[in-house]
Amino acid sequence: MVKIAIDMMGGDDAPQIVLDAVQQAIKDFQDLEIILFGDEKQYTLNHERIEFRHCTEEIAMDDEPVRAIKRKKDSSMVRMAEAVKHGEAAGCVSAGNTGALMSSGLFIVGRIKGVARPALVVTLPTISGKGFVFMDVGANADAKAEHLLQYAQLGHIYAQKFRGVHNPSIGLLNIGTEAAKGNSLTKNAYNLMKEQDDINFKGNVEAKGLMEDVADVVVTDGYTGNMILKNLEGTAKSIGKMFKETLLSNFKNKIAGLLIKKDLKAVQTKMDYAEYGGSVLLGLDGIVVKAHGSSSAKAFYSAIRQAKIAAEEKIVETMRETVGE
Amino acid sequence: MVKIAIDMMGGDDAPQIVLDAVQQAIKDFQDLEIILFGDEKQYTLNHERIEFRHCTEEIAMDDEPVRAIKRKKDSSMVRMAEAVKHGEAAGCVSAGNTGALMSSGLFIVGRIKGVARPALVVTLPTISGKGFVFMDVGANADAKAEHLLQYAQLGHIYAQKFRGVHNPSIGLLNIGTEAAKGNSLTKNAYNLMKEQDDINFKGNVEAKGLMEDVADVVVTDGYTGNMILKNLEGTAKSIGKMFKETLLSNFKNKIAGLLIKKDLKAVQTKMDYAEYGGSVLLGLDGIVVKAHGSSSAKAFYSAIRQAKIAAEEKIVETMRETVGE
């Protein structure tokens, strides 16, 4: 049995998408137990493997993160994080306020001793369908070279345990592939990483090749990572929009659009990184998964599955032993 | 009359594309004079407004920049930059080694007194077709907040003079729109910029909106700017590749491809930033334009036109008066 704590109230379409996802996950995974935190008036399920706990507060998407988790002690998010801290659940999942969830992770669940800065990790799609682990996408905007080295070590374990890559290649995101390229942060990080025997460091990788399997894990600071993540999303969306406009611009193109509709949809699905699950805050003494903000029930379901696998693969325990003190 | 110095030997398809572009530019602009630097054996033109100067050396694409410009004194690139330094030409254009051209700009043409760090500027496409000025895309990887402020001031003049935007809006590239977002660099830069009366600062802009007219000028450090530039390019290319594969994957899709071929080509042209000319190194005491590396004759022609407009609009003089000491 694996027990996961879930925030029923976070996310744009909560609680409905959370309830749908929980129902499906409980049905699909016979070894899953859930502790669900939220407003009892909106709780509609009933299952022996779901324990419902009523909370009187919820954290809003625009709440100031640190203040919210300090003041709203009876919010579904805070109580979910406390369940992980107290060992009642192996991990937790929320689609709520990202900043508040990171703060809950840092201040309630807590860091693994020896991990200087936790990192927010996503799996992004590549053309081949293989995907890659990308971190940090925004936990720590002012990173130091030593932090990037630890990200590489955490990412190595994550790619091994969660994605099943035997000896994951680690790339350092940079503005050129040569060792001497970059800013002082990446130059220093390069020098630290190349000395490490416990990771398969393949050197610098460029942002232009990210969708083409340049490495299994790509490491960067939270400022750059968040920027690149948003740029990937925004560019794909803008190009998609232009393409759509072209397909609707005249009768001839509309016919073409009908012919390729299904296959285009398949491409779009391939590029949808919600398919790969949520973001994970790595380096914490428990599993904290953020389901994407505009999560569908399907994306939330993926995030629950992700927390379950992380628990079964003992990701936290391995990180504690190898990266921690 | 405007006189522009041109490096005939730089770029993947030099000298042919340079010669083609020069021929076209001389024909189109009756008030243009060119000093062309290169190997006399490969010079095939003959025109009263082209002055050819023979050089015995050339800088290769893989030469180490600073060493190359110090040692290859008789290279076409170095002599072109010297022509600007000595006031023989108002500006110069090369499609050669970017690093060497930046070094030529810095060490031969020289900075405007009072400008701490020159910035490399490109104009990028947006969906509307309007485009925006983006800087720094790689001149200075470790920027300080004061540098970003100067970029904003330089970008303001560039957008006004070169792109004809009356009161250009300036955005600071960041990982969120709120004032408190970002790393220490962007937080400090935000505070400096919001105090300035001489620029129309509109606050932080996000990487996801870059193609949707978020600002007339978007300012960032050279590390982030180079990263985003490559990511935009790479993502657009990867998505284009997937579309193309889809359109060739079966008979039905091939028919659709034929129907929309012309309109797709138009979208592609709209997104091709070579159409907007080359990159300009702003903050120097002369105009230095880098035509894109894999330049076509058309892109090189755009870069010549760009240098000519910059000279006519007295961009350097204006920067000297307003940003310089």
UniProtKB/TrEMBL annotation, chains A, B:
GO terms for molecular function: phosphate:acyl-[acyl carrier protein] acyltransferase activity. It comes from the Bacteria. GO terms for biological process: fatty acid biosynthetic process; phospholipid biosynthetic process. Its EC number is 2.3.1.274. The keyword Transferase applies. It catalyses: a fatty acyl-[ACP] + phosphate = an acyl phosphate + holo-[ACP]. Pathway: Lipid metabolism; phospholipid metabolism. SUPFAM superfamilies: Isocitrate/Isopropylmalate dehydrogenase-like. GO terms for cellular component: cytoplasm. It holds the Pfam family FA_synthesis. It is found in: Cytoplasm. Keywords: Acyltransferase, Cytoplasm, Lipid biosynthesis, Lipid metabolism, Phospholipid biosynthesis, Phospholipid metabolism, Transferase. Homodimer. Probably interacts with PlsY. PANTHER family: FATTY ACID/PHOSPHOLIPID SYNTHESIS PROTEIN PLSX, PHOSPHATE ACYLTRANSFERASE. Catalyzes the reversible formation of acyl-phosphate (acyl-PO(4)) from acyl-[acyl-carrier-protein] (acyl-ACP). This enzyme utilizes acyl-ACP as fatty acyl donor, but not acyl-CoA. Belongs to the PlsX family. This is Phosphate acyltransferase. The lineage of its organism: Bacteria, Bacillati, Bacillota, Bacilli, Bacillales. The gene is plsX.
